[in-house]
Amino acid sequence: MGVTGHQQSLITARDVGLVACTSCGLVAHAADHVCSRCHAGLQSRDHKSLQRVWAWLIAGLIVYVPANLYPMLRTTQLLKTQDSTIVGGVVDLVHHNAFAIAAIVFIASVVIPVGKFLIIGYLAILLPRTQNKDSHRLHKLHSAVEFIGRWSMIDVFVVAILVALVQFDVVASIKPGPAAACFALSVIFTMLSAQAFDPRLIWDVADQGKPE
Amino acid sequence: MTDTIHEVAYNPAYIACPHCDTLHRFSDDELISRTRCASCGYRLTLGKSEAIIRVVSLALTSTILMGIVLFTPFLSLNAGSFASSASVVDVIFGFSTGIMVPLAFAVLCFIVVAPVLRSLALVYALAPSLAGLKNSIGAEYALRLAFSLKPWAMAEIFMVGVAVALVKIAGLATIETGVAFWAFVLLVLLNAFQDTFMCRNTLWASLATNRA
Ligand SMILES: [Zn+2]
Ligand SMILES: [Zn+2]
Fold it and tell me: What is the DSSP letter of A37?
């Protein structure tokens, strides 16, 4: 991988003193504040984006703690009530030999959220500091986080479906636990955190040293 | 770059990459084929002819399907003498007690409101040009709304959640799928098909040439 940042022949909108619309791709004069084609706000670089990334990321981390400590599901079967947390639910599935489904839930509820916290934190720490970095790799990481983050919501939907279906009152019933709401919030906050990134910042630092 | 700023600004033949700001000049042929950013690989154009009519007809079909999904049984469950059936509305309001109300609201937004709103916004923004009329008021806002709702419409994730839930209660009861279940599967497939036509450049260029 020899290529970092822009190849020599490529020029950015900012290089020629213009501002690009991130919503529709049209190029406008630097003085414009609103895109003439799609009416989106224009900004050459969103320098406040990292603050919003951190704010949402921290909010997501805070609610992720109770999401793991409190029960996700409260199952009542023959007057016996059993609470299960996110990880407990995965263990239950393994005991029932449903390994593929256990893997899906484990990846969606544990691997993806934890991976997301690490990657977003890594990008947010690295971007304002490093001068010479592999922009292609960082851009791939960011795209992956944006693409895959929403899939964490699986477990919340599982809880919703189970609660709606299993309602036999005395014999068996399933109720949602507080973790379901915390986990949903955590997914929403980290999605907002990933969206707050201005990916153009990933490519900019590699350009430093170029004539303005 | 030999072009002057005035040639580049507001010229739809130029597309700036929303992820890395790299400027591209495309020929008329390139604008209707598949192109990627030369620097970061972002898909700038999808190269689908008839994108508008496909997007509008798929959006209308999705809205009708969602109507079927909401008011027919989704899954029904039999366990000995007990039987229950749940529609998607039941799934959503399974959360609607006490502190879980916000969660019910969130699930409602992810699987019903966001997909329907997205479809209606696309029809509102793009259908007038098909009917030979000028753009409706606020068409730009509607189309931007449709693009920004994409990550929040989680029908496909809900379906994976259904699969996991079915495995979890497989030992407890027998489950039958209802009309809404298959309508929902069709909806997920149609949405995936529709996304292959959601070329930002084509849709925005068409909207710009159809101004009132
Ligand atoms: Zn624009
Ligand atoms: Zn690019």
Answer: T
